[in-house]
Q: What sequence folds into this?
């Protein structure tokens, strides 16, 4: 059976429409961005957008799936690595999260801005809470193993570390060298700013 033709018109494909939509959602806010705004940005008529995607909410869902899917996959890979000790697992989870954020900056930025105004946003927030819980469990495991301090609530530690990671969306403008950035964040999070002698 012949492969079904991809949806879209010449000059734009679903991926390019999604990139422009994410950019507009981040710049104007999802609620304030109309299909007409997206059409103008792409140089299309409003009706032509629907040759590429079924709805504005579909674009939001795809964007949030990109961010959440990459973050979840990164944590799955860290969790699956049997050779990691609890502290190595936590360090790698932080490091991987920074790499995902840098490589998918627009989608992760959008994820961090959703407020639960639509069913898609509510689903994304539930998935994000699950990721937060998985990270807190890694913190608790590292504390239980004596690798990190255990006198601070693991959920608070997790929020502080990943608050630092998430704040990168406020000033990071391009991917640059994601590995160098990830190493710097991980070193600061676990070793602090003290000069080692």
A:
């Amino acid at each position: 059976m012949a492969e079904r033709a991809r949806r879209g018109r010449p000059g734009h494909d679903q991926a390019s429409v999604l990139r422009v939509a994410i950019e507009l959602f981040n710049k104007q806010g999802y609620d304030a961005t109309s299909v007409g705004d997206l059409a103008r940005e792409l140089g299309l008529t409003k009706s032509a957008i629907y040759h590429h995607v079924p709805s504005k909410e579909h674009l939001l869902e795809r964007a949030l799936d990109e961010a959440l899917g990459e973050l979840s996959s990164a944590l799955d890979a860290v969790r699956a690595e049997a050779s990691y000790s609890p502290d190595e697992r936590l360090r790698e989870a932080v490091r991987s999260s920074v790499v995902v954020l840098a490589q998918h900056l627009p989608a992760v930025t959008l994820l961090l801005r959703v407020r639960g105004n639509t069913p898609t946003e509510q689903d994304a927030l539930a998935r994000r809470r699950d990721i937060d819980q998985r990270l807190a469990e890694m913190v608790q495991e590292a504390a239980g193993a004596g690798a990190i301090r255990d006198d601070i609530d693991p959920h608070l530690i997790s929020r502080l570390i990943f608050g630092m990671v998430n704040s990168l969306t406020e000033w990071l403008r391009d991917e640059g060298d994601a590995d160098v950035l990830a190493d710097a964040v991980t070193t600061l999070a676990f070793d602090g700013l003290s000069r080692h002698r």
Remarks:
- The two ends are 68 Å apart (CA to CA).
- The first helix runs from residue 14 to 28.
- DSSP finds nine helices and no strands in the chain.
